[in-house]
Structures are given as structure tokens and as C-alpha cells.
Amino acid sequence: MRELEPPFQLQINELTVYVTEHSLSGTRVFHLEFSDKRKALNITVAEKRPTEEKFWTSALQGRQPEAEQFGKLIANFIRSKRKG
């Protein structure tokens, strides 16, 4: 099992997103808290069947656009850390 990412922050204009990673039954879940006081968001990577195409999704229905937006930023942050 891979090591969890330590907590980190993403800055998008005036918005700060506080990110923590968790493991639930072997699934990576990211918990996001926002400086603009919107409700916290839990996101994870899922796979479409049968193509196995990966996509970011929210743990609760109705926040898919946010899951995709912030999921891509999280992935870019983690990748850039590994390259550095």
C-alpha cells in the first residue's frame, strides 16, 4: 500500500483549498475544505466500465464539476512533487 500524501493546500486566485488524503477500504479519498466557506467535498478516482477510463468523482452526488476541477489540480500537485 502506498503512503498517504501529507496535508497540503492549493491556491486558486483568492480561494485556498485545504486537502487531506485518506484511505477507505483501500480507496484513496481526498477531503477538501474551502476558504470561501462552501461545504467540504470528498472526492476519489473511479473507473468507467468497460473502458477502464479513470475520472474524478464526488463521494456525494451533485458536485461532479467541482470533483473534476479540483481532482485535476490535486493530480497535478502530486505529480509535480514527484518530479521535483
What is the oligomeric state here? Answer: single chain
SSE class: alpha+beta
Low-confidence stretches: none
Mind telling me the C-alpha Rg? Answer: 13 Å
For the record, the count of structural domains works out to: 1
- Give the SSE order as H and E letters: EEEEEH
Give the tally of β-strands: 5
Give the overall silhouette.
Answer: globular
| Count of runs of 4 or more consecutive helical residues | 1
Provide the β-strand percentage band. Answer: 35-45%
- Biggest sheet, strands in spatial order? 1-2-3-4-5
Share of helix, binned: 10-25%
Give the mean pLDDT: 92
Terminus-to-terminus distance: 22 Å
Sheet having the most strands: 5 strands, antiparallel
Notable traits:
84 residues; alpha+beta; 42% strand; globular
What does the secondary structure layout of this molecule look like, with pairings?
Layout: E1 8-12, E2 15-24, E3 27-34, E4 41-47, E5 54-58, H1 64-83
Antiparallel strand pairs: 1-2, 2-3, 3-4, 4-5
